[in-house]
Amino acid sequence: MKVFGGNIIAQREDALEFVKEHIKLHAEIKETERVERWEYPIEALREAITNAICHRNYKISSNVQIRIFDDRVEVWSCGSLPKPLTIEDLKKKHDSVLRNPLIGKCFFLIKYIEQWGTGTNRMIEKCLSYNLPEPLFEEVSGNLVVTFRGKITKEYLEDLNLNKRQILAVEYIKKIGKIINKNYREMFPEISNETARLDLNTMVKKKLLNKRGEKKGAYYTLR
After folding, report:
1. pTM (2 decimals)?
2. Is residue 1 part of a domain?
3. CB-CB neighbours of 26 under 10 Å
4. How far apart, in whole angstroms, are the C-alpha atoms of residue 1 and residue 121?
5. Is the CA virtual torsion 115, 119, 174, 169 positive or negative?
6. According to a count of CB atoms within 10 Å of the terminal CB, is the N or C end of the chain lower?
């Protein structure tokens, strides 16, 4: 645990450095070059921290928090989304609603913010390019929380209360890239078509899978 003071520009940099100290840095050889890669995309973490500082509700006597766990990093901002924005809006092209226009203008001028209303989309793109699940946006106890999830582990799947069939299906998708209802029933011949459908749709609702296509052409991929 560490508390950062100073101005909000210094807080942003200090917070990001603190995160770097507590996440893994992997190295691999590509051709003849040694390439280092952080456990999570630094650009996405930086964006989340910037947004939390820039858009928080400063009337609330609380602090922006970054919580680092073995399998995820959470960035907690103070206050819920300003109206009329919704959680679903953050996942697509949307207007920027500035709660603190003076801070927003300053962050834009010093290039901490590149373009209004695109930060959350960049977070999603960066995580997907890392082969990580897209960040989870949610409102918890009146605060906006952005959760960056690590590689999908067995423990993570168990935390989602998945059954053994669903966990085996995730391993299948990791290898093959996708699964269809027929594949699922072939893996578990004792279940009905309806059970297979319910199992897969439950994983969609838990934001673990994406459903693509319709009816007979539908298939499922990891988010």
Report:
1. 0.71
2. no
3. 9
4. 29
5. negative
6. N
Whole-angstrom Cα distance, residue 101 to residue 104? 5
The whole-angstrom separation of Cα 164 and Cα 185 is 14
Is 122 part of any domain? yes
* Distance set, CA 167 to CA 7, 72, 153 (Å): 46, 19, 10
Closest listed residue to residue 187, CA positions, set 203, 215, 167, 211: 167
CA distances from residue 128 to 24, 91, 149, 170, 214 in whole angstroms, order as listed? 18, 13, 11, 17, 23
Token representation of residue 78 = 């103070």
Number of domains in the chain: 2
Q: Domain residues for 174? A: 154-222
- For residue 205, give Cα distances in angstroms to 8, 51, 81, 208: 37, 27, 22, 8
CATH number at residue 160: 1.10.10.10
For 102-160, the pLDDT digits (tens) are 998 999 898 888 766 678 889 999 998 888 888 889 899 999 999 998 877 777 777 78
- Long-range pairs for 179-183: beta carbons < 8 A, 24 or more residues apart: 179/219, 179/220, 180/218, 180/219, 180/220, 181/218
Among 129, 127, 212, smallest CA distance to 137 is for 127
Do 175 and 83 have their domain in common?
no
- Nearest of 204, 77, 68, 220 to residue 149 by alpha carbon: 68
